[in-house]
Design brief:
Number of strands: 22
Structural class: alpha/beta
Shape: elongated
CATH class of the largest domain: Alpha Beta
Number of helices: 9
Bound molecules: flavin-adenine dinucleotide
Radius of gyration: 21 Å
Oligomer: single chain
Strand content: 25-35%
Number of domains: 2
Helix content: 10-25%
């Protein structure tokens, strides 16, 4: 076999938010090389998100990881970024009369959300149709995230700690001998005792190449688009101070973005791992739903895009060493929460890779290795 061109302590496959945040924390104590297939890190799901930090979003495990990430994003280390990574937004799950039961259930499991209705509701989101929407569950502390700055901060920090980022480096084969993985990539051969599988929608494919049993990851396409904030009376307004809202049955959401609005049908359409593209009928569906429950009139979308949110069966992420492939660490299944859980997941996976205990603040939140383990019962392996 050809000699590897580069050796490291840890090789990370994938330069999205998962790989970048893990690499940043692992590089404190290890020589890290991150391998990304595309010429730009963040090209896939990470570059296509809605960029919202919504602490009361996701299952109980996700909510612990949201909490564990917030302090880092609110107060990153000196030099991590030039501007704040998060800015106030506010977000509310809202309900029609028919959905009040769903809203009450949401409020019951989210004690930090407040019930709002009447004037208070239409002040934070004046675009909601008062003939349709009757109440909301409001998270005043929901924030916009600067996803580009967060990703670049992690990558810059990884390099500053002595690690490296190699782009155009698709991993095409993995083999292990004498306790060392050797990866064959388009940028040459790399070797290290530990490999981190942070390949997003491709994680099960990479796992297969390493001989690890699949975790049952299902990439699900989500569509998004931007539109002018034009109301039914024909006026176009600046929406930048309004809150994000979603219908509490998750059939649409909208939020201000760059002087316009962003909208989505909150779709979850199973897809093979691919460079996801929006389907015209999903955009049309979103426009129809949003026009039904809000005062917006949408003549045509500005930009449209789609990205893959990848889930395992119990919708919690997977972070831990494979039981059936030595030195192979899964870091997968971030679903629709991979930015708002980034620092927590990065610190957790670094602790696993380096053989440490769970960081104390995360253990204090009740997070356990078992709930993220790749061999937990909540996974439905194919
Ligand atoms: C429309 C939409 C809205 C969202 N909104 C939010 C939100 O508001 N808040 C939030 O927190 N999250 C949100 N998300 C989810 C979030 O974007 C993801 O959870 C996160 O980006 C996943 O990051 P990742 O690094 O796992 O995947 P990716 O960003 O896809 O990165 C994986 C990388 O691995 C690389 N790769 C794959 N195979 C190989 C290989 N063989 N060799 C080398 N490299 C490889 C890929 O090229 C890719 O760059 C949203 C997602 C979408 C689509």
């Amino acid at each position: 076999m050809t000699e590897p061109s580069s050796t490291a302590d840890i090789l990370i496959i994938g330069g999205g938010m998962a790989g970048a945040s893990a690499g940043y924390f692992m590089a404190d104590e290890a020589r890290v090389v991150l391998l990304e297939r595309e010429s730009q890190p963040g090209y896939h799901t990470t570059g296509r998100s809605a960029a919202l930090f919504f602490e009361n979003y996701g299952n109980a495990t996700i909510r612990k990881l949201n909490k564990a990430t917030r302090p880092f994003l609110e107060n990153p280390p000196e030099g991590f970024a030039e501007a704040p990574l998060m800015t106030p937004r506010g977000a509310a799950a809202v309900a029609t009369e028919a959905l009040i039961g769903t809203l009450e259930a949401e409020l019951a499991q989210s004690p930090s959300m407040e019930r709002i209705e009447g004037k208070a509701l239409f002040e934070i989101a004046p675009y909601l149709d008062p003939d349709r929407i009757v109440a909301g569950a409001y998270e005043a502390g929901a924030m916009d995230m600067d996803v580009h700055a967060i990703l670049q901060g992690f990558l810059r920090g990884l390099r500053a700690k002595g690690g490296s980022v190699v782009t155009d480096a698709e991993v095409m084969g993995l083999s292990r001998a004498d306790g060392v993985w050797t990866l064959e990539t388009r940028a040459g051969m790399f070797s290290a005792p530990i490999v981190v599988n942070a390949a997003g929608a491709w994680c099960d494919m990479v796992g297969k190449m390493a001989g690890a049993a699949p975790i049952g990851l299902i990439p699900k396409r989500r569509t998004a688009f931007t539109f002018d904030a034009t109301l039914r009376d024909g006026t176009t307004v600046d929406p930048s101070r309004w809150a994000m809202t979603d219908l509490c049955d998750e059939s649409w959401y909208v939020r201000p973005e760059g002087g316009r609005m962003m909208g989505s049908p909150a779709d979850e359409i199973p897809s093979p791992p691919t460079d996801a593209q929006p389907e015209i009928e999903d955009v049309a569906l979103a426009i129809d739903r949003i026009q039904t429950d809000t005062l917006f009139t949408i003549s045509r979308p500005h930009s449209t895009w789609a990205g893959l949110r990848s889930f395992v069966a119990d919708k919690s992420p997977v972070a831990g060493f494979a039981p059936d492939a030595d030195g192979f660490l899964w870091l997968a299944g971030q679903g629709g929460y991979g930015i708002q859980t980034s620092a927590g997941m990065g610190r957790f996976s670094a602790a696993m890779a380096l053989g440490r205990e769970i960081p104390a603040d995360m253990a204090a939140l009740g997070l356990t290795k078992a709930e993220l383990a790749p061999d937990r019962p909540g996974l439905s392996r194919p």
